[in-house]
Amino acid sequence: MFPIRDSIPSRSYPYVSYGLIAANVLVFFGQLRAGPEIDRVIERYGMVPARITSPERPIVVERREIRRTFLGAVPRVVRHEYADPPFHPWLTMLTCIFLHGGWLHLIGNCWFLYIFGDNVEDRLGHALFGLFYVVSGVGASFVHWASDPNAVVPTIGASGAIAGVMGAYFLLYPHARVVTVLPIFFLLEIMVVPAYVFLGVWFVLQFLQGSLAVSSHMQGGVAWWAHIGGFLVGGGTLLLLKYGGLLRSPPAVHRWVRPVTVYRYRFR
User: Fold this and answer.
1) 84 φ, ψ to 5°?
2) What does the pLDDT average to over 174-196?
3) Residues in contact with 256: Cβ distance below 8 Å, sequence separation at least 6, in sequence order
4) Which of 6, 14, 119, 266 is most buried per CB count within 10 Å?
5) pLDDT tens-digit map of 35-63
6) Max Cα separation, the chain?
7) Is residue 224 within 8 Å of residue 232, measured between CB atoms?
8) pTM score over 0.85
9) Which residues sit opposite 218 in a β-bridge?
10) Secondary structure, 3-state, the chain
11) Which CATH number fits domain 2-57+85-266: 1.20.1540.10, 1.10.8.640, 3.40.50.2000, 1.10.260.40?
């Protein structure tokens, strides 16, 4: 499911949400400018769990490369040592949340932050929301590290921090309506669903995928436990702020009249 918009009005301009989106985009353009050295950038500023577990141990991995000769392409396996970060490896739990692995990764994260971030920022205030975002991102990185402390695959992306924003939204606006695109084979459904359904299904899918990854010992391209950790850290932090009396009053909620399928498209 992919969200298009929600039904909650924002009373203030989301400076921090838009600033974080801009920061992610600028850092990504910085990655692109690195050209052939982009892998070194990810190795230095991405979070490598094994490097945090044993900071003094160099990370050496085997890579498969194609060597071109006059006889044609010849595959070979080479040993590669990761570049060290310019600071203590623990700080990569923070720097990794501003790196992305491609355009779809960047656009997807920024879009989810655009949809859900403004409403959470409206309740927390600008400065507190910025701190909340960082805490959620670092918490997500920590959970991912704890799930596999000896992994050597660099972890990057703002997904954990944005999952924290979604966890807060889940608690603040469970009955908000979310306009959602749901592709079903060749049929494109545009539905209006309650936020607790959209976010609840999203969290359950992350948990199932994370459990499958652990049980099968597979290393995929998605840090499922970072998503789960970010969601839980964000929700837990929101509850602490709520009980501390640090939240603003909620805005008036405009409910959707028809919480059902409103459009249907068929691709030919």
Assistant:
1) -80, 145
2) 88
3) 7, 177, 192
4) 119
5) 989 999 999 999 999 999 999 999 988 87
6) 72
7) no
8) yes
9) none
10) CEEEEECCCCCCCCHHHHHHHHHHHHHHHHHHHCHHHHHHHHHHHCECHHHHHCCCCCCEEEEEEEEEECCEEEEEEEEEECCCCCCCHHHHHHHHHHCCCCHHHHHHHHHHHHHHHHHHHHHHCHHHHHHHHHHHHHHHHHHHHHHCCCCCCCECCCHHHHHHHHHHHHHHCCCCEEEEEEEECCEEEEEEEEHHHHHHHHHHHHHHHHHHHHHHCCCCCCCHHHHHHHHHHHHHHHHHHHHCCCCCCCCCCCCCCCCCEEEEEECC
11) 1.20.1540.10
Read off the tokens for 53.
């577990």
pLDDT attached to residue 61: 87
Q: Which two tokens stand for residue 55?
A: 């900071």
For the chain, give the number of residues: 268
**Phi, psi angle pair for 13, to nearest 5°:** -70, 130
Tokens 């989106």 belong to residue = 21
Tokens of 186: 């060749």
